[in-house]
Specification:
With 322 residues, the protein is of the alpha+beta class. The protein has helices spanning 4-9, 58-67, 74-80, 88-100, 118-126, 139-152, 165-178, 199-210, 217-227, 229-232, 238-245, 281-290, 298-303, and strands at residues 13-19, 22-34, 40-44, 50-51, 185-187, 193-195, 197-198, 250-254, 258-262, 268-273, 306-309, 312-319. It is globular and about 55 Å long.
């Protein structure tokens, strides 16, 4: 794999921000399309350098859990893959996962936080609550990790440690789907390990999940996400809209402006915006899909990120070079 610093610093400008007809900012990004066999068919920047996909790794983490004995109904499996908005449906789902494993909410070890979604956050604060682990956007994943430990007979107190059997199983699943080894291991924002693969490897993962044979753990994740996109994100989230708007599509957004998509024909796509700012992520992915032949109205909505002046649109994020 290439050097990540060079890959990021040399990435092409794939979007710019227009305000009142004037270009005020640029966004460098790495983007890739891979074929069903995993071969790179379009590349923008160094797609072979390792990076942390952050929450875009969650579907592969869930596959590692399924391979280790986790068994959840589709709606809760989608929640295990989620960076959820903290709506009541999500909080109830986390409690259901834990209850099914015979565990209390207090066993969650993810970083306490307010709900990710604006409306859910305001409602939570108005009801007198503070930051809690259950409302942090990764609580579905952590509940599923705990449930996996119970199913496999593993220690629940140390499930976040990189050497724990759970995390080793997740690393093996990620490497298998990406077709490459894990390039680095760090600590994610939620406290669980985050594992680095290349942007191309991330795209391969999603293509393989989207085209997986029925009955496999990959297909179970695909079908769960497709049937319950709100559990994966929430109301008004672009990832939820994208999944609901394109049949057979699997997608997951991630912190530091990562986005990954798989199509039913096995093609995979991934984007990493160099500066980590989220506003260019969806427009770049929408253009990448549109130029790959995906023709659905949802791409117009997801790809339209306005620039506001006094609360009104005065410009937009413009994708270039794709």
């Amino acid at each position: 794999m290439s050097d990540p610093i060079s890959a990021l610093s040399e990435a092409p400008v794939l979007a710019h921000v227009e305000r009142s007809g004037f270009v005020e900012s640029l966004h460098r990004a790495i983007a890739v399309e891979v074929a069903a066999d995993g071969a790179v068919t379009r590349r923008f920047g160094d797609v072979d350098a390792p990076h942390f996909p952050r929450s875009s790794n969650k579907p592969m983490q869930a596959i590692g859990m399924l391979r280790s004995g986790l068994d959840l109904p589709p709606d809760l499996l989608a929640l295990a893959c989620a960076s959820h908005s903290g709506e009541q449906i999500h909080l109830d789902g986390v409690q259901r996962i834990l209850a099914g494993a015979g565990l209390p909410v207090a066993t969650l070890q993810n970083t306490p936080d307010l709900p990710y979604g604006e409306q859910a956050r305001l409602a939570w604060i108005r009801s007198g609550h503070d930051k809690e682990s259950i409302t942090q956007n990764c609580s579905g994943k952590h509940a599923a990790m705990l449930a996996t430990c119970v199913a496999a007979g593993w220690d629940t107190a140390t499930y976040r440690e990189a050497e724990h059997p759970l995390q080793q199983a997740i690393a093996a699943a990620l490497a298998d789907l990406a077709g490459e080894g894990v390039g680095a291991v760090g600590v994610d924002g939620c406290g669980a390990p985050v594992m680095a693969i290349s942007v191309a490897g991330l795209a391969r993962c999603f293509g393989r999940i989207a085209a997986a044979a029925p009955g496999t753990p990959e297909a179970r994740v695909r079908d769960a996400i497709g049937a319950h996109p709100r559990m994966l994100g929430g109301d008004g989230r672009d990832v939820t809209e994208l999944i609901a708007g394109v049949g057979g599509l699997v997608a997951k957004d991630g912190a530091e402006a990562v986005y990954a998509v798989g199509l039913a024909d096995g093609r995979g796509f991934a984007v990493k915006v160099v500066d980590g700012g989220q506003r260019a992520r969806a427009p770049i992915m929408a253009r990448l899909l549109r130029t790959a032949g995906v023709d659905q109205p949802v791409l117009d909505r997801v790809g339209d990120v306005p620039v506001l002046g006094h609360g009104e649109p005065v410009g937009r994020v413009v994708v270039r070079g794709i």
